[in-house]
Design brief:
With 449 residues, the chain is of the alpha+beta class. The chain has a single domain, classed as Nucleoside Triphosphate Pyrophosphohydrolase (Alpha-Beta Complex). The protein is built from 9 helices and 24 strands. The protein has helices at residues 8-19, 120-123, 186-191, 201-208, 223-231, 241-254, 365-369, 418-424, 433-445; strands at 23-28, 36-38, 45-47, 54-62, 69-76, 81-90, 93-102, 110-113, 116-118, 145-153, 163-170, 181-185, 257-262, 270-272, 277-279, 285-294, 301-309, 313-322, 325-334, 342-345, 348-350, 376-383, 393-400, 413-416. The strands form 5 sheets. Strands 6, 7, 8, 9, 10, 11 and 12 form a 7-stranded mixed β-sheet that branches. Strand 15 and strand 16 (285-294) form a beta hairpin. Helix 4 (201-208) packs across helix 9. The two termini are 25 Å apart. 43% of the residues are buried.
């Protein structure tokens, strides 16, 4: 097996893969979409096969947050997609088979993705294109050992109860490496999160499930590194596991959130035209159309609708050393599209432009935006899911709070360790996709790469 690349050689290979294919993505009016159209009677945007996904309306009533009721378009994709990484141990260290993959919504077109990233409609070839490479490693009978197999959510603000099957399969055999694939050590893969818009959301989701594979601190570890290492040790947390689970369950029980789908043409406060669907205040997001040409994909030419957010997101965990152990300030947040109402997310997760009224700004957003350079342990602009969202980006950060930051926090927040969060990733629908991304970035800090 040939182990590729670290540092500059990988980046050279990645640039070569981009140059080896033709990629073109153009905005087009919704009325110009092929095989997609507005459904008679509802105005929902649907594919003529009845598969892939639908964009329909959602009506929400909630006792959570500053906005008790609202309507919005939402992606309804009931299929469970597959996100899988093949791994192999070399010298005791895990190496991952990663793919350079084009997605129409990516701001830079090509990003690093899992070995397999496919919806059920794709891998059952509803699009009539070529098959999915390496799918046989994840389907029964599998050619390897299962390390991870868990259902995880996607963006609860834009998807209705969407989940993906996150899998990691360990092999001992040589695996043929396609042109758009390469082997990277787990440490190197995590380290690439330091680059803007390089590792895609789906890869970050699967990598988060390997958070237990961390490097020990070096002999000269400073105070932060030592506190980070202790965060992965059991029995060092401020709160007992039972206390955390009880708080999380109580949060779900206390909030009253009701949602129901409605015809897209009936959503209040949104304007629909042949070009796009957008909010009357110009905030939140629009539904737009794109035309795509990509020689590296199973289908080389297609059109589709995408969600185009207005403004970049801010996603951050606040960190604090408590009794010499690094803790993360976790927020139990409600989103209309979650399967079970509440999931654990970062301290701050929002698009600031959606909150022009200072009274409605999310808690701790001002602290995150005002953090000094010395407090920032990690910061990068990362893309959200490029198969459904158009140039959606967020600034992801890990920010160490000062000693004066209070231990006591509001009811919807709790201090938790990396070990506690990693343990919850063996279960479905506990940690949202934004929190999972930042856990990968935190793991990368253990090796100071």
């Amino acid at each position: 097996m040939t182990i590729a690349f670290s540092g500059t050689p990988f980046l050279e290979w990645f640039e070569e893969r981009g140059a080896a294919h033709d990629f073109r993505v153009s905005r087009i009016p919704l009325s110009k979409l092929r095989r997609w159209g507005f459904e008679a009677g509802t105005g929902n945007i649907v594919h003529d096969s009845g598969r892939f996904f639908r964009i329909e309306g959602l009506r929400v009533r909630s006792d959570y947050g500053a906005f008790p009721t609202w309507d919005q378009p939402i992606i309804n994709q009931p299929e469970i997609g597959l996100l899988g990484i093949i791994v192999r141990r070399v010298g005791g260290a895990l190496h991952c088979l990663m793919q350079a993959k084009m997605e129409p919504g990516n701001v830079n077109t090509l990003q690093l993705s899992p070995t397999v990233q496919a919806t059920r409609s794709n891998y059952t070839r509803v699009h009539r294109g070529t098959g999915i490479r390496y799918l046989e490693y994840f389907a029964q009978p599998r050619r390897g050992r299962v390390l991870v197999d868990v259902l995880q959510s996607e963006h609860g603000a834009w998807f209705l109860r969407k989940r993906n099957r996150n899998m990691v399969i360990e092999v001992d055999e040589d695996v043929p490496v396609g042109d758009d694939f390469c082997w990277l050590s787990l440490d190197d893969t995590r380290a690439l999160l330091a680059a803007d818009n390089l590792v895609n959301m789906d890869a970050r989701s699967v990598l988060s499930c390997l958070v237990g594979e961390t490097s020990p601190p070096g002999p000269a570890a400073d105070g932060f590194q030592a506190a980070l290492a202790r965060s992965y040790q059991r029995g060092t947390a401020l709160h007992e596991p039972g206390e955390i689970l009880s708080w999380f369950t109580e949060t779900k029980a206390l909030h009253d959130v009701t949602t129901r789908t409605v015809p897209l043409r009936e959503v209040a406060g949104w304007r629909s035209s042949a070009t796009e669907i957008s909010h009357q205040d110009g905030r939140y997001f629009s539904v737009v159309g794109v035309e795509v040409e990509a020689t590296s994909r199973e289908v080389s030419h297609w059109t589709q609708p995408l969600i185009a957010p207005h403004g970049h997101g801010v996603v951050a965990f606040l960190l604090k050393r408590i009794r010499g152990v690094l803790h993360l300030l976790v927020h139990a947040r409600v989103e209309a599209g979650y399967l079970d109402v509440v999931e654990l997310g970062p301290t701050v997760q929002c698009v600031p432009g959606n909150y022009p009224d200072p009274a409605t700004r999310p808690l701790f957003l001002d602290y995150v935006e005002g953090a000094g350079e010395a407090q920032v342990r990690y910061s990068a602009v990362l893309s959200e899911e490029g198969g459904r969202f158009y140039q959606a980006q967020s600034r992801y950060s890990l920010i160490e709070a000062g000693e004066d930051f209070p231990m006591e926090v509001p009811p919807g927040y709790r201090w938790m360790t990396a070990d506690q969060l990693g343990g919850l990733l063996t279960h479905n629908n506990y940690l949202n996709v934004q929190a999972r991304t930042l856990l990968v970035a935190l793991a990368a800090l253990t090796s100071r790469r």
